[in-house]
Amino acid sequence: MIVSNKTPRQEFVFQSRTEKCPASGNSHGPLVTDSIRGEILCASCGSVLADKVEDLGPEQRSFTMEDYAQNSRTGLASTLSIHDKGLSTVIGNADRDASGNSISSYMKYTFSRLRTWDSRSKANSSERNLRSAFVIMESAQSKLEISDAVIERAAYLYRKALTKNIIRGRTISGMILSALYVACRESNVPRTLQEIAEAGNVSFKDLSRHYRVLVKSLELQVESFNPLEFVSKIGTMVGFSEKAKRDALDILSKAHGRGLTDGKNPVSLAATAVFMSGIINEEKATQKDIAKASGVSSVTIRNVARILRKQLGM
Ligand SMILES: [Zn+2]
Questions:
Q1: How far is the CA of 42 from the centre of ligand 1 (A)?
Q2: Residue 221 CA, ligand 1 centroid: distance in Å
Q3: Which of 142, 163, 214 is nearest to 185 (CA)?
Q4: Which domains can be identified in the chain, with CATH numbers?
Q5: 311 CA distance to ligand 1 middle (Å)
């Protein structure tokens, strides 16, 4: 989780750590908490900024190793922690361990054993890097409701980037969130760079920069989003009739023909066309439903709708 408010105790710890972050060149941050190991990590470079933090309040304790274990069943933890022999050996077993115990009790045992390790001496920078990346992506996943398959792909891209050493001089959060964005694009999951930046607590500018680096270094061919694909997807998600979906496509085609779609976010355009068609066809889905399905805010939908209505004379 991203720590936004430091407790007085943490403040004290941070005061003694005033050196610059090697990844960002500024002070360390944003911060993520690994509450089981009692460590606060820098999401940019993976440095441990505070350890033996025992008095985290409940509001700061959203990430635990049990969550880690649960997520591992979807593959994320195993993918990200591939370099960590201790973890990946355990996590590699699907639902049961060798003796047939369910994974939850087995994990409990394993992670309680992990807890007793001297994490500072065992943890190398690569492991800390992956741990920070995991926490950041886990947080973004829950905020943006992204499927495990997309997360898995993002973890793969991130690990590939790590092996290419292009992470050097870049922030962990910037790289993992870029990987997440690429995975969304590849899977046609309508999430914008802006939304991912907000969910990950990084600036849009910073994320764009990292995104370009990732695409170039991994020689990725990222197709641009086609708004037409999103229209049917969003329409289906909110239970529109085929007629309403066709009308939404018509609105989008008209807007495109008049050059109104240039430079606009394709997902916002698709969501707006669906919204406008819904009104025409008296569909039950509300603006809020469409916002939720598309990941585009109601405010954006209203603003784009105002422009399209005016320009198309509707
Ligand atoms: Zn740092």
A1: 5
A2: 31
A3: 214
A4: 227-312 (1.10.472.10)
A5: 48
